[in-house]
């Protein structure tokens, strides 16, 4: 496996320091020059890492003052880029784990067939998981994958519990982009039970269709996220 770019390694290290509490909200980061010396890289490489941290709202840059850890570096899912659930989680300080409720190769529903461009009843993979942060249920995800994309998907465990990582590393799928919608909803009894909460509670329901390198659909997922784990989105001015 190719080694991650140096700016990514710096980004990962600084994010871990935020998660561990070594860098608290409001703390000032060392200057670009100091970070470059610390990591043994150029200032340009440090700037790339800081750009990514800024984009993901881990830090705030204040002209003439420096770079500071964001006060909003708390639990949440960031939607700035197409990533797995674990990578979407902001600096929550908790371990992200998955509990598989079911994994089966089954007949596509009418909705799934329409999204995949196949016939209703054609075979597809369905993986239902409870995503947990620090052992606490955060979201229920109902994911469908075309059979042709990953023929043996449900016969082997997901890599580190990650569907995206499994598709990428085991089946060579190149994720390109996703279309996603969000709406408020109330939990049905069927969906509340695996989350360990009472039915009727408010959740954020999302629907995501993910596309591969040539524009083919590689995943269709509905998920229900509890209010304690909000979505965070950075919106830039035009």
Keywords:
single chain, 238 residues, alpha+beta, 6-stranded antiparallel beta sheet
Strand element count: 10
Shape: globular
Secondary structure: helix percent: 25-40%
Assign the structural class, choosing from mainly alpha, mainly beta, alpha/beta, alpha+beta, or little secondary structure.
alpha+beta
Computed CA radius of gyration, to the nearest angstrom? 20 Å
- Which strand order does the major sheet show? 4-5-6-9-8-7
* Largest sheet: number of strands, sense, barrel closure: 6 strands, antiparallel
SSE order, one letter for each helix or strand: HHHEEEHEHEEHEHEEE
The whole-number mean of residue pLDDT values reads 85
Beta fraction: 25-35%
Give the N-to-C terminal Cα separation. 38 Å
Query: Unreliable segments (pLDDT under 50, ≥5 consecutive)?
Result: none
* Number of helices, where a helix is a run of at least 4 consecutive DSSP H or I residues: 7
In short:
This protein is of the alpha+beta class and 238 residues long. The chain is built from seven helices and ten strands.
């Amino acid at each position: 496996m190719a080694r991650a770019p140096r700016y990514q390694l710096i980004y990962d290290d600084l994010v871990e320091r935020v998660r561990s509490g070594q860098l608290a909200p409001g703390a000032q980061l060392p200057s670009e020059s100091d970070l470059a010396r610390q990591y043994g890289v150029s200032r340009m490489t440090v700037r790339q890492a800081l750009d990514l941290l800024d984009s993901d709202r881990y830090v705030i840059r204040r002209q003439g003052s420096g770079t500071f850890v964001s006060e909003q570096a708390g639990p949440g899912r960031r939607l700035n880029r197409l990533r797995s659930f674990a990578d979407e989680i902001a600096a929550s300080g908790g371990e992200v784990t998955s509990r598989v409720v079911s994994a089966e190769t089954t007949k596509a529903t009418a909705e799934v067939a329409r999204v995949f461009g196949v016939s209703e009843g054609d075979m597809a993979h369905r993986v239902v998981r409870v995503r947990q942060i620090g052992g606490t249920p955060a979201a229920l995800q109902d994911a469908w994958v075309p059979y042709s994309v990953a023929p043996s998907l449900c016969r082997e465990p997901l890599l580190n519990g990650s569907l995206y990582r499994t598709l990428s590393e085991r089946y060579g799928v190149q994720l390109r982009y996703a279309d996603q919608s969000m709406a408020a909803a109330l939990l049905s009894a069927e969906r509340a039970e695996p989350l360990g909460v009472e039915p009727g509670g408010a959740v954020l329901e999302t629907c995501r269709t993910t596309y591969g390198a040539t524009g083919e659909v590689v995943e269709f997922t509905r998920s229900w996220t509890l209010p304690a784990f909000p979505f965070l989105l950075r919106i830039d001015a035009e």
